[in-house]
Write a structure and sequence with these properties.
By secondary structure, the chain is mainly alpha-helical. 53% of the residues lie in helices and 5% in strands. It contains six helices and two strands. The protein has a two-stranded antiparallel ribbon with strand order 1-2.
Length: 113
């Protein structure tokens, strides 16, 4: 009986440690949104909701400036991240009746000045 409790406790601690380890990115970041203006991105809240970094990062590495680098190297098309990942996911969550992020350009991009 005591062994079961110890194993369960270790399992719970391991799950908690994995969750904390996964949340290593920035809380918030500003992404380059091109001519439409920057995109303030709530990174940590996406980590919390999605729980699996590979859902986004299978498309690009965890590295500052990687999206712009991949675009300039021709590895990503313009709007590929937004159309394939962001809007598709936001619309799917909205259809399920879950809280969801914006689905139009002007709701994410912020023009300065």
């Amino acid at each position: 009986m005591k062994l079961k409790i110890v194993i369960m406790t270790l399992g719970i601690l391991l799950m908690g440690a994995l969750t904390i380890a996964q949340q290593t990115g920035s809380e918030k970041m500003d992404l380059d949104g091109g001519g439409r203006g920057k995109v303030p991105f709530p990174h940590r809240s996406h980590q919390d909701v999605l729980g699996d970094c590979t859902l986004c990062h299978s498309m690009f590495e965890k590295q500052p400036g990687i999206i712009n680098k991949m675009k300039s190297d021709g590895e990503l098309k313009k709007k590929q991240i937004m159309n394939v990942l962001c809007i598709k996911c936001h619309k799917a969550e909205k259809e399920k009746g879950n809280p969801a992020g914006p689905t139009t350009c002007s709701k994410c991009h912020v023009r300065e000045g």
